[in-house]
Specification:
10% strand, 3-stranded mixed sheet, Uracil-DNA Glycosylase, subunit E, two-stranded antiparallel ribbon, 6 helices, globular, alpha+beta, single chain
Amino acid sequence: MGLAPGLRGANRTGRPFTGDYAGDLLYATMHKFGLASGDYAAHRGDGLTLDRARITNAVRCVPPQNKPETAEIAACRPFLTAELAALPRLRAVLALGSIAHNAVLAARGLRRAAYPFAHAALHDLPDGLLLADSYHCSRLNTNTGTLTTAMFEAVFATLVERLNRDRA
């Protein structure tokens, strides 16, 4: 789960994380861990398919300066709650950033203090959902070294290993 549609990415292409730098890293990592297949060429008809995965955002519209306000996040919560409820086999959510993390908790009616956001953290929620955290894969975070490809891939490795272990 990301923050919101990117102006030059999902808002333009109609597919989350498609057409912006964050998508380059996200889809390559998903492909590496068996959660996507086909070719990613930053446009909707490129042949990329998600496998056992879905991508959504905490906020449904492109926010000004890519920073949604509290009211925007709250206004989108019913949509997120409904989307999560419509996935009966949902086992885990990877939150890309604290806004996505907090949106999942709010959609589940849980207190933030009980499940603090931290990069690479895994949270077992009371309803059985696993909430995993990563810094957002934005160009800002990768350019500043807040998030490296290795750090991002480590989160996926841990999450996939945990899901496979729990399934066995």
